[in-house]
Amino acid sequence: MKRPSIILFGSVLVLVSLFQYRLIVASLVSLVSWLGLELGLRAPLGSYWNGSLFEYWLAGIVWVTTVLWLVRSFIVVRQRRSNERGSSQGVPSPVARVRRVSRRIIGGVTFVALTSPFLTLVDPNVQGSLVTTRLLPPLSTGYLQEFPGPGGPAHTPAGGLRQLFDEANDYLLNRTVLLSGQASEVPQRTSQQMGSPIRAFPVVFLLGTDDNARDVFSRIIAGTRVSLGIGLGAALGALLLGAAIGFASGMSRGILDGVLMRLTDLFLSIPSLFLVIGILAFVGQSIVTIVVVLSVSGWMGIARVVRGEVVALRDREFVLAATLLRVSTWGIVTRHLLPNLWPVIVTATVLQFANAVLGEASLGFLGLGIQPPTASWGNMMGEATGYLGSAWWVGVFPGILLAAVLLAAHSVGETTAVDGDLDAPADGAGLG
Amino acid sequence: MSLVRFVTRRVLHSVPMLFGLGTLVFFLSRLLPGDPVSLYLSPGVPPGVAEHLRSQFGLDDPLWEQYLAWLSSTFRGEWGYSFAHGAPVDEVLLQFLPNTLLLGGAALVLECVLAFLLAALAVRFTGSWFDRALSSLTLIVYSLPSFWVGIMLLSLFSFSFTIFPSSQMHSVGGEQMSGLAAVVDVLKHLALPALTVAIPGTAVMARYLRTSITETMKQDYVVAAVGMGLSTGRVFRSYILPNSVGPVISVLGIEIGVLLTGVLVTETLFAWPGMGRLAVMAIFTRDYPLIIGCTLCGGFLIVAANLLADAVRAWIDPRIRLP
Question: Which of A17, A347, B160, B296 sits at 20 to 30 Å (Cα–Cα) from A328?
Fold first, then answer.
């Protein structure tokens, strides 16, 4: 990274850290004290495990790592600067520029997906006051109050690590956050219920609020994880399925090859969105089924590319030599073919990742994907169609992010293909 | 080989494809969890009734017998009965299919015309800012999800500036309109959805067409034609264009699949009464026969579209007809 981008990214990190320092500190304390408790071996291993804490721990680890990495690269760039002073740098070519931007988009979005609990203003499913917070345009101001969990810290202080652990978890999991469009409204409504707030301050709804008075910015951040996670899972599933079928088809000559390739043609002939919604209608919508269905409907491109390459490679001399040396088929595939196939496979998988993200978004848009209230880019856009005339911002911003990710994936896929001196696989397996 | 024989052979080739599609859909619908009978009966019904219904629908028969029965009834055109619409599935499909074909056809025409204009402009002004913008915008525009394009168009042209209607196919009371007025009304409703479906494909088509035209312009016969003193327009029409659309048409065959899925989503956004919206509604109402019917019909459309693309290509370029 260049110096201005380090400074920009770093200042964003510092700002968010200042704003969310309680959350970050609580996450780190929770992680460290959990490790201490488990390593203390007073109780059977894993007895303090709590699944809903994991996202905070992961976010904490990624956050600290990123800060350290930023500091390091700042120092490195500074040294390199002083070494290279005077040497002129050429203007980067457009392709290189697009590739760099694409990498940044993918890196940034991955970072957002991993650290989303710290980046969201509030829990993305928290509804604000429906009277004053509904459908506020972008950049309008509101008011946020944070309360301790119901009834405050109820557990008896156990002292030591255990108390630290409990208090951190209490903050992470049980606190309540209230949103409203006006400062005057919240205190009367809630002061009897929950005591005095931990903190209260004005906020800006960067991208406005939606029909249910939820912060659009927070929901987009939370949706990043859902959309990218499903895309990644489906791409990996398609990779496993496609590579297996491609290898089986390419290595065998004759009937099996014919049958598998006709099967591939068959799957390609079905409009994949029809297939996906057809299966989802029978199995129901959950993250797992959506990932599986998107994998099942998206392996064909990878299978074709892999088969093509295997057929091209299997008669080469080095494979013949390996066969004569009595290397097993498995050995030939893993040691002689796979290393040669990596560039093709990576390219096809990256493109399939874009297809899967788009497929998930299309499903969500139709109301057949991830079900509300969990946010994904697709279902946000789907919900937005109901009040497009009065609030354009709810649907437009998730779409911009989606298009950016698709663009980045397409161009990274294409440039990988160019790097590996290979043709980009062109197939009609795309959704949407 | 004559064109007729080529097309006949391609049609025969696609029969096993349709057969396989039907088989796939059948086994998916039977193998997936969820018993059709228990879905439609309330839990309070005595078990005997469920057993009776099961044997009546033939669900107790061995799978291959069910498969044969299903195949024969499908090929006879009996596609089951849609619960939500209270009509046979084929009637429902025939009622909605023309609207989808209208939207898809309009989008396709729009796509081709726009792509041709853009490509012609880019070739005419090779190296200009327009040419460079076209080639760099292609990837961006192609990455735009069609439903998001639809959302933008809707909020721009039908809410901010109320130029086009936002949904449905006819205005309220459109049935009473006569002749030209009714056609104009449908066209007005068609404009935004067709544009939504067409925009992502247009970028790709324009880029392919531009590359193909520039490639053709380097050929010796074009140089010869220019050397003979033919006018630029004549050279473009008779020499360059026929030779550069071939590769684009095969891309078009693939694009039709993408276009069709775009149509599905777009129909839902614009409440266009076509197959895509029908399929989505069928899922919400758990109308299984209709879901299977829609999947089959969609597969049929794609096979037919590829067939059409091949036929057009063979018509333009006789070399393809060679076996």
Answer: A347
Residue A430: pLDDT over 50: no
Residues A389, A253 share a domain: yes
Residues A232 and A98 in one domain: no
Residues 275-304 of chain A with CB under 8 A from chain B are: 275, 277-283
Model confidence over B204-234: pLDDT tens digits?
888 888 888 888 888 898 889 888 888 888 8
Query: Do A262 and A378 belong to one domain?
Result: yes
Distances (CA, A) of A163 to A39, A60, A157, B105: 16, 20, 6, 68
Touching B: A residues 304-323, CB under 8 Å: none
Which pLDDT value is given to residue A231?
94
Say whether B32 and A403 touch across the interface (CB within 8 A): no
**Mean of per-residue pLDDT scores for chain A:** 81
Scan for tokens 């044997």, then name that residue. Answer: B55
The percentage of chain B sitting over the pLDDT mark of 70, rounded to a whole number, equals: 89
Q: Do A407 and B143 touch (CB under 8 A)?
A: yes
User: Contacts of residue A285 in chain B, CB cutoff 8 Å?
Assistant: none
Q: How far is A360 from chain B (nearest CA, A)?
A: 11
- Boundaries of domain holding A249: 216-419
pTM of the shown model: 0.83
Closest to B250 measured CA to CA, from B322, B317, B181: B317
Asked whether residue A105 falls in the same domain as residue A234, the answer is no
A371 found inside a domain:
yes
Number of domains forming the structure of chain A: 2
Is B97's pLDDT higher than 80?
yes
Per DSSP, the residues of B185-248 read: HHHHHHHHHHHHHHHHHHHHHHHHHHHHHHHHHTSHHHHHHHHTT--HHHHIIIIIHHHHHHHH
Inter-chain residue contact A358 with B145, CB threshold 8 Å? yes
A window 360-399, beta carbon within 8 A of B = 361-362, 365-368, 381, 384-385, 388-389, 392, 395-396, 399
pLDDT digits (tens, 9 = 90+) for B265-309: 888 888 888 888 888 888 777 777 788 888 888 888 878 887 887
Summarize the confidence of residues B38-62 as an average pLDDT.
Answer: 69
* Helical residues (DSSP H) of A175-215, grouped into ranges: 186-194
Helix axes A287-296, A272-283, angle to 10 degrees: 140
pLDDT at residue A155, rounded to an integer: 56
Residue A187 lies in a domain: no
Residue A264, min C-alpha distance to chain B (Å): 11
Query: In whole angstroms, what is the distance from residue B312 CA to residue B157 CA?
Result: 36
Give the closest residue to A99 by CA, choosing from A413, A346, A342, A425.
A413
Sequence-ordered list of residues with C-beta below 8 angstroms from that of B209, at least 6 positions apart, any chain: B115, B116, B119, B244, B245, B248
Of residues A365 and A184, more confidently modeled: A365
Which residue of chain A is at minimal alpha-carbon distance from B268?
A366
Distance from the B168 Cα atom to the nearest Cα atom in chain A, whole angstroms: 14
Q: For residue A100, what are its two tokens?
A: 């760099």
Residue A131 within any structural domain of the chain: no
Same domain, A238 and A378: yes
CATH code for the domain in which residue A307 is found: 1.10.3720.10
d(CA A411, CA A95): 9
Helices (H), B218-323: 220-227, 232-235, 241-270, 275-284, 288-316
Residue A308 lies in a domain: yes
- The Cα of A340 is separated from the nearest Cα of chain B by a number of Å equal to 28
Instruction: Find which of B30, B155, B281 to mutate to test the A interface (most A CBs within 10 Å of its CB).
Output: B155
Does any CB of chain B come closer than 8 Å to the CB of residue A42?
no
Average pLDDT over residues A376-393: 86
- A428 interface with B at CB cutoff 8 Å: yes
Does the beta-carbon distance from A432 to B146 stay under 8 Å? yes
Minimal Cα–Cα distance from B108 to chain A, Å?
A: 15
- Residue A147, classed as helix, strand or coil, is strand
Query: Does the predicted interface ipTM exceed a cut of 0.85?
Result: no
